[in-house]
Design goal:
Layout (H helix, E strand, L loop, with lengths): L7 H32 L3 H14 L7 H4 L2 H4 L3 H4 L2 H7 L3 H41 L3
């Protein structure tokens, strides 16, 4: 369902948002991938990847002598939903891309919500103007 704004300013706003959105997404993915290959992976990030890899390989929730049994320490229930992606691609970059995707998807949803509110407010303003113009 696409929200359309009939004004030229609304179309320019949509194009501007999507242009900035795509440029920012591309730059973020580039920086993430470059920093992964040249700077290594953080200990927490690899810890989460290792946890998901162990589940995918059938080793269960045990994460070695340091972190031990993860569900006894913290509940990583949402993270477990990413296990199929880790099993499929077998790289820690999956978690970075998933994180970026979640941020950008939520930004896009907020933009769509705001556009819908703006279109509703504009329609209410037009209805009020017609009602006042008709002498009701």
């Amino acid at each position: 369902m696409m929200i359309t704004i009939n004004s030229a300013a609304g179309k320019k706003t949509n194009l501007l948002f999507y242009g900035i959105f795509i440029i920012y997404l591309t730059v973020t993915l580039y920086i993430t991938t470059t920093s992964y290959y040249h700077s290594g992976f953080s200990s927490d990030g690899f810890h989460y990847y290792s946890f998901l890899r162990n589940i995918g390989n059938g080793f269960g929730l045990w994460e070695g002598p340091v972190f031990e049994y993860l569900l006894g320490n913290h509940a990583y229930l949402t993270l477990i939903l990413a296990t199929p992606l880790v099993m499929l691609f077998k790289t820690p970059l999956v978690l970075l891309y998933l994180n970026i995707f979640c941020w950008f998807y939520s930004a896009w949803l907020l933009y769509r919500f705001a556009a819908r509110l703006e279109a509703g407010a504009q329609g209410a303003h037009e209805r009020r103007a017609r009602r006042l113009g008709a002498g009701v």
